[in-house]
Amino acid sequence: xxxxxxxxxxxxxxxxxxxxxxxxxxxxxxxxxxxxxxxxxxxxxxxxxxxxxxxxxxxxxxxxxxxxxxxxxxxxxxxxxxxxxxxxxxxxxxxxxxxxxxxxxxxxxxxxxxxxxxxxxxxxxxxxxxxxxxxxxxxxxxxxxxxxxxxxxxxxxxxxxxxxxxxxxxxxxxxxxxxxxxxxxxxxxxxxxxxxxxxxxxxxxxxxxxxxxxxxxxxxxxxxxxxxxxxxxxxxxxxxxxxxxxxxxx
Length: 250
Known about the structure:
By secondary structure, this protein is α+β, with helices and mostly antiparallel strands. It has two helices and eight strands; from the N terminus they run ααββββββββ. The radius of gyration is 34 Å and the shape is elongated.
């Protein structure tokens, strides 16, 4: 009787085993994907929080430095605030200045006295926000957040133009100059002008021209959005007094 050779027995996965292993593999991949998405989301939120904290720290630093120098006029002290002034001061602020007053034509002595005498001003933005927002600077305070404040800070630069890293004197900018010569009396004791020919106040030697310091006038408020209207991200805004389309204004 003829015998046929037996075939070798084959080993491997059954269909059921293959399907079970594929299901386990997919579950592991899905778990890893969920973990990756959670890690990325966590990193994104952590980055946003870090940027928010850093922006807040920087904003407080800028505000703090600006407010600390409010009312610094390069050595000039308003008479109503000068305890050594012998007479009756005639520069007591009788009203609040217009902090966004355009320098065309040049400010009067009364207007300049108010700006110097009231170096810090504040207003509240009520809820709902009125329109226009304020009686002053309505075109500068755009879409403010309700129940916040508007702050105006004025002083002169702490550095002298052209000395060290301080920018040099620029044409048509507004500068402040203290008159220190005792023989040449200037009322009210300083010169504030954008005209270089008017900045002729002298030092105590009554010979050399007194140093100039650039006027700093900053407006701060909180806008109700950051980039796009409606994004809901409150943003600290600052408007600085300077040249705008050739005119000196905020």
